[in-house]
Amino acid sequence: NWFPFKTRFDKSFLDGEPTFVLDYSGPGNPPLIRSIVDEIREVAPGLYLGPAALNFRGRPRPVLFFAVSHQ
After folding, report:
1. pLDDT digit string (tens) for 5-41?
2. Is the model's pTM score more than 0.90?
3. Which partner from 3, 9, 14, 64 sits 20 to 30 angstroms from 41, CA to CA?
């Protein structure tokens, strides 16, 4: 609820493979938050891994990786 985002399937900025993208670039978000792009992929049943990146000069630059587990 803090920072709304849009989702889409797209090519990963890391390797060009298909990924699920969380895009925070909406005008209602603060400038720093608008620069965030997260990707997420299922790497094992119920386990998801993704890079979080900041757009810098038009290119996403990874800053950390995160995991989500669904049990």
Report:
1. 999 999 999 999 999 999 999 999 999 999 999 999 9
2. no
3. 3
Residue carrying the six token digits 């950390």 = 64
Handedness of CA 11, 2, 68, 32 (dihedral sign): positive
Q: Residue 5 — φ and ψ, nearest 5°? A: -140, 160
Residue for token pair 């049943």: 45
Cβ neighbours, 10 Å, residue 35? 16
What does DSSP assign to residue 23? E
Nearest to 53 by CA among 40, 66, 64, 67: 64
Could you tell me which of 20, 1, 17 has the C-alpha nearest to residue 9? 20
d(CA 33, CA 20): 18
